[in-house]
């Protein structure tokens, strides 16, 4: 029997969010529960917060968990905006032990890949054709690449070098806040980043997500690139939905 409900947790640089998910609609069931990301965001400290969120909902099924990291076969290989101690950590084993689950009931994946999976499944059908790139603008810039709806996991397009800088150090949403940039000022940086990226991979569609997508009308119309840009339909809940989907369907990279 296909599961109709799932549970996802999205670990970010500033907050860890979890919620029950309606897998038929791709929508949250009730409110999400958020706790600030611990400082430092070590594996054990983060696992404690994740356990707290799971307990809050009383969920006893499979759990999908995203990390701002390259994740291969449950192991974290990078650590963006979380503690470097994550590098080399078997996240599957860590969370299985902390949540008292079998490792098969934990699905670990990159946060942007999870958000992209949710958009491909539940968002605009245009995203399922050709080459689609989802970009999440938050503490950093996450990326997910799809060819005809199939994920090419663990792209790190947020770390492209643009004009001598790591792209996310100039164009992430956190930079807008930290430097006090207006939307037009920040949109100029996003535009420069997207123009470099589109010249490298020639996508058919960009989808922009992350918390700043809630204010899309303030910056997306200012972009002047050749690739069409869609705003993520699930906005900042896409990571949670994608994580729940991965756990329910046993998808992991």
How would you summarize the topology of this molecule?
Elements: E1 5-11, E2 15-22, E3 27-36, H1 43-57, E4 63-67, E5 71-72, E6 75-76, H2 91-99, E7 106-110, H3 111-122, E8 131-137, E9 141-147, E10 150-152, E11 161-162, E12 165-166, H4 167-171, H5 173-179, H6 183-201, E13 205-209, E14 229-231, H7 238-249
Parallel strand pairs: 1-4, 4-7, 8-13, 13-14
Antiparallel strand pairs: 1-2, 2-3, 5-6, 8-9, 9-10, 11-12
Helix pairs in contact: 1-2, 3-7
Largest sheet: 5 strands, mixed
Q: In angstroms, what separates the terminal alpha carbons?
A: 24 Å
Main sheet: which strands, in order across? Answer: 3-2-1-4-7
Shape: globular
SS-derived structural category: alpha/beta
Helix content: 25-40%
Average pLDDT works out at 95
Order of helix and strand elements from N to C terminus:
EEEHEEEHEHEEEEEHHHEEH
Low-confidence stretches: none
Helix count, per DSSP?
Answer: 7
From the alpha carbons, calculate the radius of gyration and give it in angstroms: 17 Å
The number of E-state strands comes to 14
What proportion strand? 25-35%
């Amino acid at each position: 029997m296909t599961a109709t409900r799932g549970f996802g947790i999205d670990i970010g640089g500033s907050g860890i969010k979890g919620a029950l998910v309606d897998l038929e609609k791709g929508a949250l069931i009730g409110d999400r529960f958020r706790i600030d990301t611990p400082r430092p965001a070590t594996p054990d400290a983060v696992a404690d917060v994740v356990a707290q969120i799971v307990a809050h909902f009383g969920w006893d099924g499979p759990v999908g968990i995203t990390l701002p990291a390259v994740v291969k076969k449950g192991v974290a290989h990078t650590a963006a905006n979380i503690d470097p101690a994550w590098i080399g950590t078997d996240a599957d084993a860590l969370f299985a032990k902390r949540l008292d689950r079998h490792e098969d009931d934990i699905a670990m994946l990159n946060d942007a890949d999870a958000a992209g999976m949710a958009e491909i499944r539940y968002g605009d059908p245009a995203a399922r054709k050709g080459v689609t790139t989802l970009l999440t603008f938050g503490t950093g810039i996450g990326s997910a690449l799809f060819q005809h709806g199939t994920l090419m996991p663990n792209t790190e397009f947020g770390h492209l070098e643009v004009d001598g800088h790591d792209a996310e150090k100039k164009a992430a949403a956190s930079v807008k806040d930290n430097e006090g940039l207006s939307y037009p000022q920040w949109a100029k940086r996003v535009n420069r980043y997207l123009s470099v990226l589109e010249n490298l991979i020639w996508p058919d569609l960009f989808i922009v997500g992350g918390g700043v997508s809630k204010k899309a009308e303030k910056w997306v119309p200012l972009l002047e690139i050749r690739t069409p840009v869609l705003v993520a339909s699930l906005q900042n809940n896409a990571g949670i939905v994608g994580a729940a989907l991965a756990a329910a369907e046993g998808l992991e990279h």
